[in-house]
Amino acid sequence: MDTPWKHSTVLLNEAVDALFNSPDVPPAGGQDTIHTYVDATYGRGGHSRLILSRLAPSGRLIAFDKDPEACAAAASICDARFSIRHQGFSHLGELPQASVSGLLLDLGISSPQVDNPARGFSFRFEGPLDMRMDTTRGQSVAQWLATAETTQITEVIRDYGEERFAGAIAKAIVARRQERGPISGTTELAELVADTVKTREPGQNPATRTFQALRIFINAELEELQQALAASLKVLAPGGRLVVISFHSLEDRIVKQFIAHHSREVYDRRAPFAAPKVMQLKAISRVKPGAAEVAANPRARSAIMRVAQRTSA
Fold first, then answer.
1. 47 CB contacts (<8 Å, ≥6 apart)?
2. Residue 22 has what pLDDT?
3. Residues 6+ apart with CB under 8 A from 281
4. Domain enclosing residue 99, as ranges
5. What is the DSSP letter of 26?
6. The domain spanning residue 199 has which CATH number?
7. Mapping DSSP to helix (H, G, I), strand (E, B) and coil, where does residue 237 land?
């Protein structure tokens, strides 16, 4: 059944163009190799459908998604070349070595997740304080806040939300819990944060950074991203493309540093005459949405796409 929550895929053509704008070096095994692509964050399938439209008859597309609703939506794709795994992209390393011609990671959350009050991602709607990408496992935000210490809450909101009032917000959450019991709803948390944070950037809801931090933490998003990037070096065939779309500075910093680190030769200072460790990636491009896309989809405004290519080393 269709839901009212629609999703506009960010950098749709740019991402798929980058994925298929393959190099001169063919994947391991030669020109006759069956090309396998990976959409590591299926969402609602915008990128996957475009990839399939450009995929050779013998090609394969493997999608990953932790969200059971996304996996259910993928059932609408009737294509023998396509398969989806109900897993996070930290499981990328389970794919065979050097088997992937292109890997796409579209980070962040999808519009159906944000706009569905039952998922608890947004302070704009009243709903349960959940925020889990995979609703079949793990703690919800409400469950974690019910027992977390002030120092733990402070660290999460400070480190994952870059919130300068993290300590005051954490103290307010614990005081509220001790006085009237745990916070269970999105509106209640948003109002508590608004009462605590007295100043904020123009046009930004006071709860924005806190909600971002709790979502990132409860889903271990940054840790999973680091695992997936490390796995990309194993699963990408020589010449294969890595395309990553991030939506906030914490994600983009990890991606930028990972590509930069693996795009240079590394010398061992303890062995100055030894051959350097060769680079494993080649940085290709950095792309942001154009003005027309941002005007049509304001959620695209913070997106940054970075593209790298696996070397033959």
1. 9, 12, 15, 16, 39, 104, 106
2. 58
3. 233, 242, 259, 262, 263, 308, 309, 310, 311
4. 12-111+221-310
5. P
6. 1.10.150.170
7. strand
Domain boundary among 192, 218, 244: 218
- Say how far apart CA 14 and CA 287 lie, in whole Å: 8
- Which one-letter amino acid corresponds to residue 10? V
| pTM for this predicted structure | 0.89
- What are the tens digits of pLDDT across the range 223-235? 999 999 999 999 9
Same domain, 179 and 248: no
Do 227 and 246 belong to one domain? Answer: yes
User: Which parts of the chain are beta strand (E)?
Assistant: 36-39, 60-64, 82-85, 100-106, 236-246, 281-287, 304-310
Total domains, the chain: 2
Looking at residue 266, its pLDDT comes to 57
Structure tokens given for 29: 């095994």
Q: Which residues make beta-bridge pairs with 241? A: 102, 309
- Contact assessment for residue 28 and residue 3, using Cβ atoms and an 8 Å cutoff: no
Q: What is the DSSP string of 184-222?
A: -BHHHHHHHHHHH-----TT--TTHHHHHHHHHHHTTHH
**Residue type (1 letter), 235:** V
Q: How confident is the model at residue 168 (pLDDT cuts 50, 70, 90)?
A: very high
Residue that the structure tokens 């910093």 belong to:
253
| Inside any domain, residue 5 | no
